Amino acid sequence: MSREEAPGSALQRIAEVRRSIERLAQTRLESLPREFEFTEADFAAIRALVAERAGIALSPAKRDMVYVRLSRRLRALGLKRFADYLARVRSDERELEAFINALTTNLTYFFREPHHFEHLRTWLGQRPGTRLWSAGCASGEEAYSIAMTACEAWGRLDPPVEIFATDLDTQVLEEGRRGIYAAERLEAIDPGLRSRYFVPLADGRWQIRAELRALVRFDRLNFVENPWPVQGPFDAIFCRNVLIYFARHTQRMILERFVPLLQPGGYLYLGHSENLLYASEAFEPLGRTIYRRKADGELAAVSRERRIGSQPEAVARGESWLPSSSRAGGFTGTVGAEASSSKARVEPVRPGDPVILIGASTGGTEAIKTVLQALPADAPPVLIVQHMPEHFTASFAKRLDQVCALRVSEARDGEVLTRGRAWVAPGHSHLRLERQGNGYVLRLDRSEPVNRHRPSVDVLFFSAAEVLGPAAVAVLLTGMGRDGAQGLLALKEAGAHTIAQDEASAVIWGMPGEAVRLGAACEVLPLTEIGPAIVRAVSGRQAFCSRH
Questions:
Q1: Which residues form the catalytic set?
Q2: Which SS3 state, helix, strand or coil, does residue 392 take?
Q3: Residues in domain CheR-type methyltransferase (predicted)?
């Protein structure tokens, strides 16, 4: 049983809630009795307005939430229709602020994701004059957790640090400035910390000590407005469980604006469900959603690579993955600007030649792109299963083809495996590999789903274990569930080199986590290291894992 499916697990509860929300979203809400008139046009207008003014992306499943939260504003204003309320919001800046406050989610608690504060403490006491930013501070728990960590690191109530705390919601900022919290909000805090940094109030609540409140400066910040009310450089930025509320282009914009505000070598802390590997090359992942801002020299090198169109230095130019005696023509390792001419090359794969296999689900589209961009134009063939609905896989393959040196397309039944090609399983069919004569062909079929998926990663992996054996290099990336784990184990037992993405860099560690639990992975690696690991495995520069 995978971690997500363990009875009573947090991920299981999250999945149940998500399914409940999806069921509610499918209900014909117009047929239910409503206190206020609320049409599809009203909801669309609200989504557009909050995206424009705050960058927040509301999914269709949020319709009930929007109705409930904004209904309070209609009652307060004596309005009967959402159309009238929207007119008020557009003409009244104060009501616009209340509108945004109502739609902002503020879920936080003290020392959330404690490993971040453990990491902070390891270096904080060595840097006097440290400047720290809690971006998305909600009601202040994160900012005060930073302050307590600083006091502990320095052993005093007035450590040499500056802490800035910003949020979009003006109401929670006021709560943060007061620093008063109900007793239950402190239940998870160590009693020693509570006695050192909180003062009990007569009504049973607790208040942050005045010395700590003096360390934190609260201010409103809207990520889509300019300028931001903060000035760098900062030694660390906490922006945890904030980016998930924005569309991808807004996430990229925010991360790009973080770069000049963060000291080279400074740290960026993200939430457990967030990663920025798809959005920025300015940060080096350290694991557990901690990132280091690269030095200016490192960023300049990345910029030069981008200008000349080169890929990451996984394969040196002119370097061969396989001994020249193993096949005619050799493997040139061509990347970057020279890749376009290589895309037309057709070199059929023979028995014993390597084949690369990739399986992924949730979060996999960007993860697959990261891996493929590390491979040169004449790499061994790559077969990809990404859980994706029909009609979307063709466009996904087309996008990959535009940004990778390999030629990428949606798989078709009967195609012959050749070097320099990658195939994405179509959303309606399983993808299998079949031996034919002195080579291999792709086979598609619409048989029943496996592990609730069609295409299924296990179907591809099991077929490859039968016909490729030790010639396969297989990778299982981020995804929910167990699909691919048993197949990866079968490949390992057949002598293949197997790789699973690590938990810190995965959006969801279900599939690779299950593979690790089964002992199916020869290597467990961060996403950015998987491409180079494929190169090492194919070239033979790394010893393969033990055979069973």
A1: 361, 387, 483
A2: coil
A3: 31-296
